[in-house]
Amino acid sequence: MGERIIVAGRVLDEDARPVRRTLVELWQANAAGRYLHPLDQHDAPLDPNFTGLGSALTDDEGRYRFVTIKPGCYPWRNHHNAWRPAHIHFSLFGPALATRLVTQMYFPGDPLLASDPIFNCTADADARQRLIAHFDWDSTIPETALGYQFDIILRGREQTPLEHRD
Length: 166
Known about the structure:
Elements: E1 4-12, E2 23-28, E3 53-57, E4 63-69, E5 74-75, E6 83-84, E7 87-93, E8 101-106, H1 117-120, H2 125-129, E9 134-135, E10 146-149, E11 152-153
């Protein structure tokens, strides 16, 4: 249930070279803003046909592609009337599980971005913009799914902001 979308992009190094055969995982809430997870107690409905998980290996050009649905925003109760904007979590795995990198992708024009502390914990405004996918006509499937482009750059000046887990 929900708006079908295509999320595609490339995983690149600091010199814009493709990172081949990298495992890319995503997880997300359903269209109603609920995760299929026992700790998610939001009263939005679960979609029995949607797990909210996916994985793919990048090809020789560093490309990945997922067909999914646009996730809904959801309340997260950290203060009065707090909502998370629609977002998709990404994990990238290097040659070992210990080399896992995590980031989040947001959607253009989302009015909740301005008040989201997770999005805004990236202090550099230019870096925050690298967390927002770009609408993409080329990957849009007519009458079926809108396309979004989200490239992930692993190092360097144009690096995609990553979550730091201790």
